[in-house]
Amino acid sequence: MEIIDMITKRKLKKMMSVLFISGCFFIGNTKCKGADLEYISQETANYAVQERGYDLPVDEVVKEEAIEDCKNVMNQMKVIYQKADKGTSSNIVVSETVMEEMQEVLKEKNVPVITSAPYSNMANYSKMEEFLFRAEQDLTGDIVLYRINRDGGIERLKFNYDGTDMYLLAVKAVWGMNDNPSIVYVSYTRIEEWKYTEKGWFGYTLCVPKYPEVSEAVDGSSMIRIKPLSDECREVSKRCVYLLGYQGNNLLCSDWDRSDMEGLDYNGLYGYLYRMKYGERYEFSGNSSGIPAEEFENLIMEFLPITAEQIKKWAVFDSEHQTYDWERLGCLNYSPTYFGTSLPEVVEIRDSGEGNNVLVVDAVCDTFICNDAVITSELTVKFNDDKSFKYMGNKILNNGTKEVPKYQYRIKRKN
Question: To bridge 115 with a disulfide, which of 19, 99, 177, 201 should be the other Cys (CB 3.0-4.6 Å)?
Fold first, then answer.
């Protein structure tokens, strides 16, 4: 069934509901009176709350059941959480390994479970997929999805489809005093629009406050991968594209190859390659005029088929001090875009010969536009026996560059 047909059908059903309520005020030429009018007024008020779609009232029994289930699930994972290395920071973050251990526990409940780790595969995904397939056919049903968060807490997301609209009852729990479960919030919201894509992404937009109730746009969009990625695509996604992203550098969002590398933002790219190599963010002290040339060039050449002379020519280079300019990404040199928050996801890997592999990369954007492939590119990578690799080129498919904002260089390039 086409997505546009499903959305149109839902909107038509809502229109019929409005006509039905409006029609209660007149029966033929006779106006409703007395108790009937009071009943209609209450029904109209209820409809207004329903049409708003957010902060919907929750049946107390349903609410308590959701809270108790959430606490019970937390207690099943309590031992894992207590044994986990939580560091010394007050802002607790557990490792991906710990989240995966928790996922294995919940997997036994035979319900869908994901973690907040990048490229997390959903356990028992077929349950979630079956619910969405039925909803596409206007068949009623519900499903509970658990998401394990980075702080070791969980979200219990219950999706319900009533034949016309889909709703989300969300409960979030964290670890409180003495490692006891503590409920952060319970919310009940209508989903304004939703779709299940061929690539296996469930995208939905919650009803949220809008102008003039709020002065700035509120984003109610989310994307959840249902169909699992292959283990190879997950591993290569983490290794080659996750830390690059689409913000602050243009390696994945521009066309380039060995014969045309002038347009890459080398000064912006340096910090991302540094983190990929050393596992930590680059910190510039600011006590010098820039990054020493040899240090800068060696790192760039490790990941790209380029010479030191070419880097000097195309990057922002201070020949007097033999340094490369550096600026932290901020409001003065970067204008935020929805596209910039996209997650690069490797969905296919092909051997292109000469030791090179072509990675088909989708830019998955879960903010506002809710798109599982804003652009798709073919990233050519050469993997070496020592587990190092070089980026050899990138080609954006289907005129995708027209779909994204013009790239903003971190540092103004000199003529």
Answer: 99
